[in-house]
Amino acid sequence: ESVYLNGEWLAPEAAKVSVFDRGFLFADGIYEVVPVYHGHPFLLEDHLARLERSLAALEIANPGQAFWLDLIQQLLTRNHSQDALVYIQVTRGAEAKRSHLPQGPLQPTIFASVSAMPVHWDVPTPVKVTLLDDIRWLRCDIKSISLLGNIMLKQQAQACGALEPLLHRNGLVTEGASSNYFAVKDGAIYTAPTDHLILPGITRMWVLKLAKELAIPVHEQAFSVADLAQLDELFLTSSSREVQPIGQIDDIIIGQGGCGEITERLVHAFHASKRQLSAQ
Ligand code: PLP
């Protein structure tokens, strides 16, 4: 197994960064996760566009598209990766002493590694989620490595026996700790719009496109906490979970508690599209 750190390919245990790295001191950095199927990065252009937006938001220098393409290709080749998740992290870099304000432009710290993609079943088993107050900051659109809120919420969810928190702000569902939510009501799909309150999930965007192709009405409109008990179906999306049906929110059973019909159609459409794109 080999990881990339600042121009070098190393064994994971040999990759070391300075304690003065701003990623370590301030979580001053961003990351990206790209799914890979049969050795092909899935929706790579969209992931790179989001990576570039995250860097621009923090005013961290961007080595450019050609650099990222080459890095990912080398990472996959060196690790013989077939079905995998590529992790890329960029921090603002290390400086001589700790200071909130960066002291001039720094050399960013770039790290990349690859891990195994979880197995996906034909139709995934429905999971339970738990409703929690969205305590995170107001720039959730940036894929920041500062994930304290997400981690605390994920721990609270785990304590309730739930896979993910279902986060809400001002009565509306925002997203999960590492996923986007979709509700189905009367044959139509609802999901929060891409503003500062959610991460614009690449899987979210792809599922919206698939739904439109299947002529399922979609509304990029947040659904409310008050309506949760009346939903017909609920699912979440992410690069590692793909399309994950939800059978239960705390004590509320969604539909029959299984995988709903529209969710199942989207699970199948998702599998078909990833097979198609990775065969090219
Ligand atoms: N929302 C948050 C907060 C996330 O961390 C993630 C991914 O980890 C997502 C949504 C889903 O994004 P994607 O579909 O690009 O993996």
From TrEMBL:
CDD domains: D-AAT_like. Involved in the biosynthesis of p-aminobenzoate (PABA), a precursor of tetrahydrofolate. Converts 4-amino-4-deoxychorismate into 4-aminobenzoate (PABA) and pyruvate. Its EC number is 4.1.3.38. Belongs to the class-IV pyridoxal-phosphate-dependent aminotransferase family. Its cofactor is pyridoxal 5'-phosphate. Pathway: Cofactor biosynthesis; tetrahydrofolate biosynthesis; 4-aminobenzoate from chorismate: step 2/2. This is Aminodeoxychorismate lyase. InterPro entries: Aminotrans_IV (IPR001544), Aminotransferase-like (IPR036038), BCAT-like_C (IPR043132), BCAT-like_N (IPR043131), Class-IV_PLP-Dep_Aminotrnsfr (IPR050571). Keywords: Aminotransferase, Folate biosynthesis, Pyridoxal phosphate, Transferase. It comes from Pseudidiomarina aquimaris. GO terms for biological process: amino acid biosynthetic process; folic acid biosynthetic process. GO terms for cellular component: cytosol. It is an enzyme of class 4 (lyase). It catalyses: 4-amino-4-deoxychorismate = 4-aminobenzoate + pyruvate + H(+). GO terms for molecular function: 4-amino-4-deoxychorismate lyase activity; transaminase activity.
